[in-house]
Structures are given as structure tokens and as C-alpha cells.
């Protein structure tokens, strides 16, 4: 044997040389950046663009009913700014805006945003669509980057700047003409392709737009800085945001907004660093819908804040219902590994993970009980004990998930997962050595049949191994085993030291009555079994109640040595004494199986 480093990576053969590092194209001079030392201590303003950016990216755009379902969902979640479309781009979008107005569906405290390009006829139709909206923001955008200036539009910097300025003037004039006096009107400007644009030019255009709008304390302007295509690491975007935040005039009257896409897979991280860099607002979509790889996922971003003790100011307490509505409306599934919302994100299959989670829940239960003993209600005690759980960044209950799916069993699972699942679904508290024994049985099952073992299947395996069919009728098992306990009568001497037991057993189909004396019921029962010709010795014993009330049952676990073979038995019965007898019979039958 000898030690050596792994073999080196080999050249891929891919044409990487055709690409240029982003910072060789766009320069950022910010040696004294401050954002790395900042913390996010409050939620930003949120704007959902599910009905605009999200909808336009669907293979089959949403119809009116699906759009209305999404709109109502966003309102119920607590969104106060919702971009509902591009009304000048299609009759469908225009009609949807008008339907919300006509139906009185827009709450007084919700601001509706609509998008437009800098063309007079589009601006007029956009403002016409806004008539009757209590709070309306018109969002103007035009692309500034060199690629778009030189290739797409073939316009110079002055011409591109004037597009933004002229569009702003036209929006203000049309709004003054058609909107009601009591309409609360706002304006948003996006220097599209911001991340690829020279910072000094982005600033120049934004300042020119502000010269027209004239922002002040009660006349805010939203300046939205899009990562239209994500092109660099998140720290680069943060530098760009901090640079703009420092250099913009009227900063107190500017709402600095982020609009991240996820082309490099780091949209959430870029948005978080952008907030640290001074941004006030984030635009995005639920579950990351949007063009190409999608917009920043507002669910992930909000629950990241929640996991840090920051109120997200959005209600995600029933995340499965949010997911169901979005999936129905968009005809797109939320992948099972999507942070916080996916089917499997609170689930562990690994044995070591499951064992850690099981121990974590046990420790937390003790801490919560201690706070309840101090006089706190259960709800207050749950909040008073800080969440600290292996492999679970948030409490699944807080987003409407149950604990049943936290641990699931497959071929990678160990004793911890098996014990946890039986504990949560059947209230069984298996002793550690029984956990080890049963996990091996489950392992053999998964190795043979493959796939996942859910709670119902796990119970069926457990019952078939340890319990007679009558004790688990829902498992639909065939009865097996040489012995069956039919009845037992116990009498004790006056000093309670010795017990006389008469037990009725079915042995291979034949009923037998055995009598013995022992130091307690279990000792007497083992002595009685000597009449069957078998040697049984008790090595370990545990018991607990499964429920409370008049129909309560108890579970007993007995580790036995039967003719030199060590194995466990389990018994369940309303009588704790009878359950212990059944546990011994379970071990005896397993030894003879």
C-alpha cells in the first residue's frame, strides 16, 4: 500500500477560449466596498412579476382564470406590489388588467405595476389600461449595454439616453391626462441589461430620467437594476449595486430595486448580496419562474430571511398550498429538491442523518417541556426554544409540513430512520439494540425489493416480524408462529415476592395449560415456558404506554436468549403484564421461525 494524490483533471476539449472573463469586459472600481460587513436585518419591499415575466416564459401562457388564481394568491400572501403584465403588448394582458379593475379585485393597499417600452402608442395604451386602479406604477425599460446599442438598436449613447428621457416625459404627460386625481401614481425605470453596461453610463441615464421625474420625499422613483442575464459571481453584482447606491443623487427619494435572473444558478445569492449592498426592493417570481433559467425565487429568498430570524413579510405558512396553486396555474411542477418547497427538502434517507435528526427532536422535546414547566404554553415554549436541528434549517411545521416526511427509509437508511418513522407513525419507542436488529431486517427488504419503504410498508414489515396477525390486522398479514397466548391468571403471595401464574398457550395448534411460580409475572411466565421444552432467558426489558384513556395500550420489548439464540420480541396489549408475555412469545416464535 502507498499514498498518492488523485490523478489530475484532464483538458475538456471544450472551446472555452471563445469566452472572456466578465471583469475583462465590465470594470468596477470599488476598492472600499462596505457590503461584505453588512447584514440583512429586515425584509425588502417585494414585487412579484409572476404575471408578467413569469407568464411570458411559459410554453402555454396562463389564461384569465389561472392569472386570477395567481393574483389572488399573491394578495393573500401579502404582496403589496404586483406586476400584472404588459398591457400594450397584447389584448390578453390589457383585458386582464381591466378585468381586475372591473371586478374590484385590487385591494386599496396593493400597487399594480405595468410594463412598457419607450414608444408613444405603447405608453398611451399602457396608461389607458391603468384607469381606475387605486395605486399604479408604470415601469419603463430600455436596454443600455454596448451589445444592444451597437448590434440590436444601432444607436449611440445619446440616442439611447434620450429614449429613456422621452419615455419618461410621455408617461408623465399621459398619466396627467387620463388617470383619476385620487390615483396614487408611481414610476419605475429599468436600465435593461444593467450588469453588462458601463456603470458611469447607467448612472448618466438614471440621472437624466430623474431630472424629468424630479423625485423628492413624497415623490419616489424606483430605479430597477436588472441582472437581465446573470453573467458573473454574486459579489460582482453587489459591487455594481453599491457603486450605484453611492453615486445616485436624490438617494433618499430613490427606491433601489433588484431584478435578478438565475443563468449561473446564483440568483438568490446575488439578490442577497445586492440587499447587503444597499438595495431596498426585489423583483422576482414564486419558485423561480421566468425566462430561461428563471427569475430569482422569492420563496427561497423570503424563507432564507425567515431562517435567520427576520420576518419575511410574506405568509408562507402553507407552502404546499402555494405550490399547488402555482403548479396548476403554470402547468409546471416544482422540482422535489426546490429549497423549502420541494417534496423532498425536509426528508433524510441517510442513516447517519436520520439518527442525528431523531436525537435532535428528542433533545428539543426536553427543552420545550422544560419551558412549559416554567408556565409557558406549548406554542410559546416552541418559540422560546431556538430552532437548532441537524439537517433541518427551519421547522417544517412553520411552513405547514408534517414531520412524517422528515425521515424516509430506503437502502441507505439506518436504525435512526427506522426508529424515528415507527416512533412518529406508531408511537413505538424501540430500545437501541432492537433498533439495530430491526434495521437489518429492513435493509434486507430494501436490498431485495429496492425502492422506498414508507410508513405503512415499514409497519407491515415490523408487524410481520414481531407481532401476530391479530395484533396488526391493518397490515393484512398471514398468521405464523408455533405459540399463541390465549390467557393468563396471576396470583401473588402476601409479601408480593412470588407470583403464581397459570397460562393458556396454543402450541402447534394444541391448547396447553401451564403453571409456574416466579419472582414476578415475567419470571413466572419464563418458568412456565420450560414446560414446552424450550429454554428462555430474559436479557433486557422495556415498556411504555402507547396511548392514554380507557382504551389505552402498552408496548413491551423483551430481549431473550432462546436456546442460545439472542433476539427481541414485541408485545402490544391493553395490559402491560400481558404485553410483556406477548413480547416473550414474539421472541420465542421468531427463534423457531
Automatic annotation (TrEMBL):
InterPro entries in the record: 2-isopropylmalate_synth_dimer (IPR013709), AIPM/Hcit_synth_CS (IPR002034), Aldolase_TIM (IPR013785), IPM_Synthase (IPR005668), LeuA-like_post-cat (IPR054692), LeuA_allosteric_dom_sf (IPR036230), LeuA_N_DRE-TIM (IPR039371), PYR_CT (IPR000891)
Major localization class: cytoplasm
GO molecular function, one term: 2-isopropylmalate synthase activity
Sequence ranges assigned to domain Pyruvate carboxyltransferase in this UniProt record: 44-320
EC number: 2.3.3.13
Localization per Swiss-Prot or TrEMBL: Cytoplasm
Segments of this protein annotated with the region Regulatory domain: 469-593
GO terms of biological process kind: L-leucine biosynthetic process
Domain of life: Bacteria
Pathway noted in the entry: Amino-acid biosynthesis; L-leucine biosynthesis; L-leucine from 3-methyl-2-oxobutanoate: step 1/4
Keyword Transport among record annotations: no
Essential cofactor(s): Mg(2+)
Keywords tagged on the record: Amino-acid biosynthesis, Branched-chain amino acid biosynthesis, Cytoplasm, Leucine biosynthesis, Magnesium, Metal-binding, Transferase
SMART domains recorded: LeuA_dimer
A Pfam family that the UniProt record links to this protein: LeuA_dimer
Name of the top EC class for this enzyme: transferase
Example of a GO cellular component annotation carried by this entry: cytoplasm
Residue sites binding Mg(2+) per the record: 53, 259, 261, 295
Catalytic activity: 3-methyl-2-oxobutanoate + acetyl-CoA + H2O = (2S)-2-isopropylmalate + CoA + H(+)
Record note on quaternary structure: Homodimer.
Functional description taken from the UniProt entry: Catalyzes the condensation of the acetyl group of acetyl-CoA with 3-methyl-2-oxobutanoate (2-ketoisovalerate) to form 3-carboxy-3-hydroxy-4-methylpentanoate (2-isopropylmalate).
Family of this protein: Belongs to the alpha-IPM synthase/homocitrate synthase family. LeuA type 2 subfamily.
Name of the protein this chain belongs to: 2-isopropylmalate synthase
Organism the protein comes from: Actinomyces naeslundii
Gene (name only): leuA
Amino acid at each position: 500500500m502507498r499514498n498518492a494524490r488523485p490523478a489530475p483533471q484532464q483538458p475538456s476539449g471544450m472551446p472555452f477560449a471563445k469566452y472572456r472573463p466578465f471583469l475583462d469586459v465590465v470594470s468596477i472600481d470599488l476598492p472600499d466596498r462596505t457590503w461584505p460587513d453588512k447584514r440583512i436585518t429586515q425584509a425588502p419591499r417585494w414585487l412579484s412579476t409572476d404575471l408578467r415575466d413569469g407568464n411570458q416564459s411559459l410554453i402555454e401562457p396562463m389564461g384569465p382564470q389561472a392569472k386570477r388564481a395567481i393574483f389572488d394568491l399573491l394578495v393573500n400572501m401579502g404582496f403589496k406590489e404586483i406586476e400584472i403584465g404588459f398591457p400594450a403588448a397584447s389584448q390578453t394582458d390589457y383585458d386582464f388588467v381591466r378585468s381586475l379593475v372591473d371586478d374590484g379585485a385590487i385591494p386599496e393597499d396593493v400597487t399594480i405595476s405595468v410594463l412598457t417600452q419607450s414608444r408613444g402608442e405603447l405608453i398611451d395604451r399602457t396608461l389607458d389600461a391603468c384607469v381606475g386602479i387605486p395605486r399604479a406604477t408604470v415601469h419603463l425599460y430600455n436596454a443600455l449595454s454596448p451589445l444592444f446599442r451597437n448590434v440590436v438598436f444601432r444607436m449611440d449613447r445619446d440616442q439611447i439616453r434620450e429614449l429613456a428621457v422621452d419615455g419618461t416625459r410621455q408617461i408623465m404627460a399621459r398619466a396627467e391626462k387620463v388617470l383619476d386625481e385620487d390615483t396614487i401614481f408611481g414610476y419605475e425605470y429599468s436600465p435593461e441589461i444593467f450588469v453588462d453596461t458601463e456603470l458611469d453610463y447607467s448612472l448618466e441615464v438614471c440621472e437624466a430620467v430623474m431630472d424629468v421625474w424630479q423625485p423628492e420625499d413624497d415623490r419616489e422613483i424606483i430605479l430597477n437594476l436588472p441582472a437581465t442575464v446573470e453573467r458573473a459571481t454574486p459579489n460582482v453584482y453587489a459591487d455594481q449595486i453599491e457603486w450605484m447606491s453611492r453615486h445616485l443623487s436624490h438617494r433618499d427619494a430613490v427606491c433601489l430595486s433588484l431584478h435578478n435572473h438565475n443563468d449561473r444558478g446564483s440568483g438568490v445569492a446575488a439578490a442577497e448580496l445586492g440587499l447587503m449592498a444597499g438595495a431596498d426592493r426585489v423583483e422576482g417570481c414564486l419558485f423561480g419562474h421566468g425566462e430561461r433559467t428563471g427569475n430569482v425565487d422569492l420563496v427561497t429568498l423570503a424563507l432564507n430571511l425567515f431562517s435567520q430570524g427576520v420576518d419575511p413579510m410574506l405568509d408562507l405558512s402553507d407552502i404546499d398550498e402555494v405550490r399547488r396553486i402555482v403548479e396548476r396555474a403554470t402547468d409546471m411542477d416544482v422540482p422535489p429538491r426546490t429549497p423549502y418547497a420541494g417534496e423532498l427538502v425536509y426528508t433524510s434517507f441517510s442513516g447517519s442523518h436520520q439518527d442525528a435528526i431523531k436525537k435532535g427532536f428528542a433533545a428539543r422535546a426536553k427543552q420545550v417541556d422544560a419551558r412549559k414547566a416554567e408556565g409557558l404554553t406549548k406554542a410559546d415554549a416552541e418559540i422560546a426554544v431556538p430552532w437548532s436541528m441537524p439537517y433541518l434549517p427551519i421547522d417544517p411545521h412553520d411552513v405547514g409540513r408534517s414531520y412524517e416526511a422528515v425521515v424516509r427509509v430506503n437502502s441507505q437508511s439506518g436504525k435512526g430512520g427506522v426508529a424515528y418513522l415507527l416512533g412518529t407513525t406508531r408511537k413505538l419507542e424501540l430500545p437501541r439494540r432492537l433498533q439495530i436488529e430491526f434495521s437489518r431486517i429492513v435493509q434486507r427488504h430494501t436490498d431485495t425489493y429496492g425502492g422506498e419503504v414508507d410508513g405503512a410498508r415499514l409497519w407491515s414489515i415490523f408487524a410481520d416480524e414481531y407481532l401476530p396477525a391479530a395484533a396488526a390486522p391493518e397490515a393484512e398479514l398471514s398468521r405464523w408462529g408455533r405459540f399463541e397466548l390465549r390467557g393468563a391468571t396471576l396470583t401473588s403471595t402476601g409479601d408480593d415476592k412470588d407470583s403464581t401464574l397459570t397460562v393458556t398457550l396454543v402450541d402447534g395448534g394444541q391448547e396447553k395449560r401451564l403453571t409456574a411460580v416466579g419472582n414476578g409475572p415475567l419470571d413466572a411466565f419464563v418458568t412456565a415456558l420450560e414446560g414446552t421444552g424450550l429454554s428462555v432467558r430474559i436479557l433486557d426489558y422495556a415498556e411504555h404506554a402507547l396511548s392514554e384513556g380507557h382504551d389505552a395500550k402498552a408496548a413491551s420489548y423483551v430481549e431473550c436468549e432462546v436456546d442460545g439464540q439472542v433476539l427481541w420480541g414485541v408485545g402490544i396489549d391493553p395490559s402491560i403484564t400481558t404485553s410483556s408475555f406477548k413480547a416473550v412469545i414474539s421472541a420465542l416464535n421468531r427463534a423457531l421461525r
